[in-house]
Amino acid sequence: MYQFNRIVLVAVGCLIGWMTFVSPTSVIAKTHLVQPGDSIQAAVDAASPGDIIVVTAGTYRESVKIQADGLTLHAQGRVTLKPAKYGSGECYLPGHVAGFCVVPADFDPSVGSYTRRVRDVTIAGFRIVGFDDGVFGFGTENFKVTHVVAIDNSDYGVASFDGIGTRLARNATSGSHDAGIYVGDSVDANAVVTNNRSWDNSLGILVRHSHKVLVSHNKVWGNCLGIFLLSDIEAGGSGQITVQHNRVSANNNFCPVFEGFLPDLAGGGIVLAGSQHDIIFHNVVSDNRGNTLFSGGIVLITNTLPNPDGSFDVSKDNFVALNRLSGNEPGDIVTDATSTPNVFVRNRCDTSIPDGLCGF
């Protein structure tokens, strides 16, 4: 009997200890309900870390800035976010408006500095139309954007800059003048871009100046370039990116002198410009046709942007295997003379520049 009582007391003590450490989060966390006529921003401002903000069906005209950790914003039903009819809701630049802007509390946009990342923010299920950026994150950790439809936003559809652990999944982006989906300036990104659809943007999916990114199971079509891995003039370049199980087709729109710093873009499926140590694996790439430097099915070329010392990053040490390619011009696989060494294994295709990159 004594032993039984002792066991009970120990168990009760453990339970009390567990409640001491765990229960404060469950007590503090709240659900905030936002209905048409209410302000999403007001709910965000009133929320505490761990809270859930549920936005019910309707159209909301506002720009929402999130700077607190641990918030989840979830659309219930068809929720459309559009810019305010009057005035603006600046995100990170004067006059620049995003549907959702997720940035650190002390973020200084003039130099891009902050002292602490904003963590564990999730945005899910919204339809975002007509902003400069649909969803914009900068200086985030474990930032998640899922089931968002971003249409006709003038710069980016869904974008993450300088993020760690970003996950962009099951989104649909169209009509962006830059990239539908973007991961950039993240030298240790550990990011996942998966199961998205991106069409009729300038760039379907752009991974720029980033490392350790998985781009998988996306459908990308009707852009100027489909999936673009870009190194630029910043230290560290681009690399260690895995692009697998994507369907990339007919990205044949024309983007002249893109953004003022790249040559004409058109007809590129999966394009590596100065990106290194990447794996391009088991993708279906078809009917991407053009006559620019970036045209072809899978394209590995030297970056056109010089580094501060005047050198150029080449696309080298990449592994390209088991892809199925057809109908791409000027070739299913295209490399320039300086993009070497790379390894090509068992790609099913008809044409390559230079010859001999298809098959075994």
Give a quick set of tags describing it.
single chain, 360 residues, mainly beta, 2 domains, 31-stranded parallel sheet, 2 helices, elongated
Percentage of residues in strands:
35-45%
- The domain tally reads 2
**What is the number of helices?**
2
Please, what is the average pLDDT?
A: 91
Task: Round the Cα radius of gyration to an integer and report it.
Answer: 23 Å
Ranges where pLDDT stays below 50 over 5 or more residues in a row are: 1-27
Biggest sheet details: 31 strands, parallel
State the assembly state of the protein chains.
single chain
By helix and strand content, what is the structural category?
mainly beta
Taking the alpha carbons of the first and last residues, their distance comes to 75 Å
**Outline, from the CA principal axes?**
elongated
The beta-strand count equals 35
The portion of residues assigned to helices is: under 10%
Structure described in brief:
This protein is mainly β. It folds into 2 domains: 29-177; 202-360, no CATH class. The protein has helices at residues 2-28, 40-46; strands at 31-34, 52-61, 64-66, 72-82, 98-102, 118-119, 122-124, 127-129, 133-138, 140-141, 144-146, 149-151, 156-161, 167-169, 172-174, 179-186, 191-194, 197-199, 203-216, 219-221, 225-230, 238-244, 247-249, 254-255, 265-266, 268-273, 275-276, 279-281, 284-286, 296-301, 319-321, 324-326, 333-335, 343-345, 352-353.
Structural write-up:
This protein starts with a helix and ends in a 7-residue tail after the last strand. The chain folds into 2 domains: 29-177; 202-360, no CATH class. The protein is mainly β. The radius of gyration is 23 Å and the shape is elongated. Helices cover 9% and strands 42% of the residues. The chain contains 2 helices and 35 strands. It has a 31-stranded parallel beta sheet that branches. The protein has a two-stranded parallel ribbon with strand order 6-10. The chain has helices at residues 2-28, 40-46; strands spanning 31-34, 52-61, 64-66, 72-82, 98-102, 118-119, 122-124, 127-129, 133-138, 140-141, 144-146, 149-151, 156-161, 167-169, 172-174, 179-186, 191-194, 197-199, 203-216, 219-221, 225-230, 238-244, 247-249, 254-255, 265-266, 268-273, 275-276, 279-281, 284-286, 296-301, 319-321, 324-326, 333-335, 343-345, 352-353.
